[in-house]
Design goal:
alpha/beta, Rossmann fold, 5 strands
C-alpha cells in the first residue's frame, strides 16, 4: 500500500496535484470517499485494474487507521486536506512513518484562475477568452478540478475571512440554484468520464461544460 498526503490552504495547488495523481489510474479504479464505509472501500479489490486509488477528504484519524489495516497491497491512498496540517498532526506523522509522499501547498500569488471562476459565477461570457488562457497555462484536468471546486463554492459557506470575498460569492450564488448545481455536477462528471475514455476531445468537452455553466 502507498500513502500520499496532499494538504494546504492554497486549494488550486492541492486540486492540481490531486488531478495529476489521478491521471496515473484507470478512472474506474478510482474511489473518492468521505468517512463512511472506508473499510469497504479499502478492502474491496478492483475489478478493473491491479492498481487502485482511494481519495479521502479530511478523514478522521481513528477511522483511517482502522481502514488502513484492511488495505490491499496494490492500493494507493491519497489523503487530501483543505488546510495545512500542523507538524504535530497524527495523520502527517502516520504518512511520514509509512514513508509516504507529502505535498503541501501554501497560499500563493499564483491565483490567476480565480478571475475565470468569478466570470463563471457572474455568468460573464468573457469566461470563454479566460478559458483559453487558463487551458494553455494549467491544462484540462486542473481546470476540471477547479470547476468542481467552483460548484462546491456555490453551495458551501465561504471559508475566507475576507468580507469582500464572502459578499462576492454570496452574490454569485444567486445565479445557481441547488437543482442547477446538481445538474452541472452531473455534467462535469460525465464530461470528465468521456474525456478519459476518449469519447470527446478534452478542450471541446471543457468548453461545452463552461457553456452550460454560463448559459
Amino acid at each position: 500500500m502507498k500513502l500520499i498526503l496532499v494538504h494546504g490552504n492554497f486549494q488550486p495547488g492541492v486540486l492540481k496535484k490531486v488531478a495529476e495523481i489521478k491521471t496515473g489510474f484507470d478512472p474506474l479504479s478510482i474511489t473518492e470517499s468521505f468517512e463512511a464505509d472506508l473499510g469497504l472501500n479499502f478492502s474491496s479489490p478492483s475489478l478493473f485494474s491491479d492498481k487502485r486509488l482511494v481519495i479521502l477528504e479530511n478523514p478522521d484519524m481513528k477511522i483511517l487507521e482502522e481502514s488502513l489495516s484492511q488495505a490491499n497491497p496494490g492500493l494507493t491512498v491519497l489523503v487530501k486536506f483543505s488546510k495545512a496540517l500542523e507538524k504535530s498532526s497524527a495523520i502527517l506523522k502516520r504518512v511520514i512513518e509509512a514513508k509516504g509522499e507529502v505535498f503541501i501547498f501554501e497560499e500563493s500569488s499564483q491565483t490567476s484562475i480565480f478571475p475565470f471562476l468569478d466570470m463563471l459565477g457572474n455568468l460573464n461570457k468573457k469566461a470563454y477568452m479566460e478559458l483559453e488562457k487558463n487551458y494553455t497555462e494549467f491544462g484540462g484536468q486542473y481546470i476540471l478540478s477547479m470547476l468542481a471546486y467552483f460548484l462546491r463554492r456555490m453551495v458551501q459557506k465561504p471559508k475566507t475571512e475576507s468580507g469582500f470575498i464572502r459578499q462576492k460569492i454570496e452574490a454569485q450564488k444567486k445565479n445557481f440554484r441547488a437543482e442547477r448545481i446538481i445538474k452541472l455536477y452531473r455534467d462535469l462528471i460525465e464530461t470528465d468520464f468521456k474525456i478519459k475514455q476518449g469519447l470527446i476531445e478534452e478542450k471541446i468537452g471543457i468548453t461545452l461544460l463552461v457553456q452550460k455553466i454560463i448559459s
